[in-house]
Amino acid sequence: MKAFVPGARVAGTRVVMLVPFLWLVFFFLVPFLIVLKISLSQPAIAQPPYVPVLDLSGGWQALKAFADGLSPDNYSLIASDRLYAASYFKSLQIATVSTLLLLVLGLPLALGMARAPTGWQPMLFMLVALPFWTSFLIRIYAWINILQHDGLLNQFLIILRLVDEPPAWLASDTAVYIGMTYSYLPFMVLPLYATLEKMDETLIEAAADLGCPRWKAFWLVTLPLSLPGVIAGVLLCFIPIVGEFVIPDLLGSSHSMMIGQTLWTEFFLNKDWPVAASVAVALLILLLVPILFYQHMQTRNLSERS
Amino acid sequence: MQLEEVSKRFSSGIAVDRLSLDVGEGEFFALLGPSGCGKTTLLRMLAGLEAADHGRILLDGRDLALVPPHRRPINMMFQNYALFPHLNVENNVAFGLKQDEISSSEIASRVAHMLSLVRLQGYEKRKPHQLSGGERQRVALARSLAKRPRLLLLDEPLAALDKKLRNETQFELMNLQKQLGLTFIIVTHDQQEAMTMADRIGVMNHGRLIQVGPPSEIYEQPNSRWIADFIGDVNLIEAKVLAAEPGSLLVASSVAGELRAANARGCKPGETVWVALRPEKVRISRESPSARDANCVAGKVGNVGYLGEFSLYRVRLECGFEMKAMVPNIMRIAERAIKPDDSVWLSWSPDTPVVLTR
Q1: d(Cα B232, Cα B66) in Å, to the nearest integer?
Q2: What confidence tens digit (pLDDT) does each residue in B5-48 have?
Q3: What angle do CA B197, B201, B206 make, to 5 degrees?
């Protein structure tokens, strides 16, 4: 009996670990391999609209024929056609600027929440998370309403006599930045709040006691200590913004497309699944760099805490 | 350092109540009191982390009310040490120096000096989480001393240390204070710590200073029953003054009969007083004591508390009142004569107790 209990616990731990592992295999790895396979195919007017098709019942010969049919042509197309490069660049630009805006806006918000009286904090937390209770799509349509020519924003600006002519907000990068900042703010604020809330207030007092004015203590103490939260917030915003489709499609201009829109066009308008798939794979590789960086920071944090 | 009628009120009640105090240059002053008596609040007001509601705080005659904490020549060692977790030992100690316009070579030499003072050479590159409790405490001390403050405030600096390390550190702190010639104000709830280290002790309760004086005076000449009871152990016997002569007093107590005591407070006949007698000043014996002038009561030993260097005898008098007598264990326990249930005499000379009027 004595020997049985620890053995059962080890087995139990293994089962628990197996669940997320299997989840990742079936819902991430297998779909990714399918996309990778399609990205190496060529478009065809067929069902499905690409060749070669993998036929597992055909045996070794069929498998060999299938492997011979694969080619990296789509990737050379993406690399050579400037449309894709411009699209990737646009995505990175939008994501970088939006993330910076989010950080500038989110940090004081999170700081204010963390310093608020303890009784208020659950309420403030709720208020930040509250927009999630309405459909994302409806909220973006609401922004179209606010930003359009005779929308709320322009009415407001004219009443305040800040402008004579109503400016055009929609179909511009500004509108995309507004939409991104609005939509992703909770993803920036919540991890920042989580780290700031845990921070020891006496550290700021100690800094003041040692001759450090408040604004300087923010740079020397608060910010370095909230770095894990900053990194988490930045990555939680940056990565999905790069691949964002709905916001630029509804609020942005049609002249320059983000990579999500390009992918959509390839897939639904051009019906070119292989190119769409290779755009997706290239995007994943592009995003893998910040994801791996995040993981590295996470493990470093964990090992430092223990 | 002068405090004039300083008060501080929180929503939960008054923390510091019209408190006045002078602390001299180079003094080691201890604020002693039960938890929640306002001693930490007082310290935080000196550091500028709390503002006083009333009264003035003066340093070298200058009012500190409008001086923010980062401009005060006062440093504090925090109870939880408040070391910056993202900085290594060296940068923690250098933090305060870097806020002033000091050359980096000067900073480096002063940090090195501080670390040698607290015997932490070789720990420069370690982060706080890689240090033991005692090492962290020493880093905090080095950090608060690095700027050579006019006044160093220590908030329960040794509370997190085990007893042996605490005793060692007490003497280290005293040496450092003498060596550097600084003024220290330490907050503690540990009376032994205050007694060992301080030149003067201020005992606080409910936001007020009840008594201020050197450790021996606080212990030997408490000014009230509360102080006598708070500092050390005491037998308190309520009595009425029968006869008062200059220098000597005859009182009648319901529990121990007529007693003689020195009259230091000018008590008058008929007044109610309390005779405060420290247990270690009580003699305990099986035979009736012979000395004529001694106060003497009979009783039965209840239980004996063995404390190692001392034994504490609880003796029940005939009326049921219990008195304590503390006796050094000169002989080994098997050879001692007095055991529970023995009938004994307690005696003490008239000049050992203190007569208290409040």
Answers
A1: 40
A2: 788 877 777 888 888 888 888 899 999 988 888 888 888 888 88
A3: 130
Residue A58 corresponds to which tokens in the numbers above?
């055909």
Taking only residues 162 to 201 of chain A, the set having a beta carbon closer than 8 angstroms to any beta carbon of chain B reads 200
Cα separation, B300 vs B346, in Å, equals: 10
Give DSSP secondary structure letters for B288-322.
PP--SS-EEEEEEEEEEEE-SSEEEEEEEETTS-E
Q: What is the pTM of this model?
A: 0.76
Quote the CA–CA distance of A145 and B212 in Å, as a whole number: 73
Q: Are A169 and A175 in contact (CB under 8 A)?
A: yes
Residue A266's nearest CA partner among A250, A280, A287 is A280
- Out of A203, A211, A305, the one facing B70 most closely (by C-beta) is A211
Query: How far is A213 from chain B, CA to nearest CA, in Å?
Result: 6
Please name every residue paired with B211 in a beta bridge, in sequence order, or none if there are none: B203
List the strands of the sheet with B343-348, edge to edge: B283-285, B343-348, B295-306, B310-317, B322-328
A112: CB partners within 8 A, 6+ apart: none
Nearest CA in chain B to A214: B70
Measured over the CA atoms of residue A231, residue A236, residue A239 and residue A244, the dihedral's sign is negative
Q: What is the ipTM of this complex?
A: 0.77
**What pLDDT does B162 receive?**
79
Measured distance CA(B354)–CA(B357) in Å, rounded: 10
Which residues are registered as beta bridge partners of B283? Answer: B347
For chain A, which ranges sit under pLDDT 50?
A: 1-3, 306
Q: What was the pLDDT predicted at A98?
A: 97
pLDDT at position A140 is 93
Question: Which pair of structure tokens corresponds to residue B351?
Answer: 């000049």
A305 vs B contacts (CB less than 8 Å): 129
CA distance A168 to A148: 7
Instruction: Find the radius of gyration of the CA atoms of chain B.
Output: 25
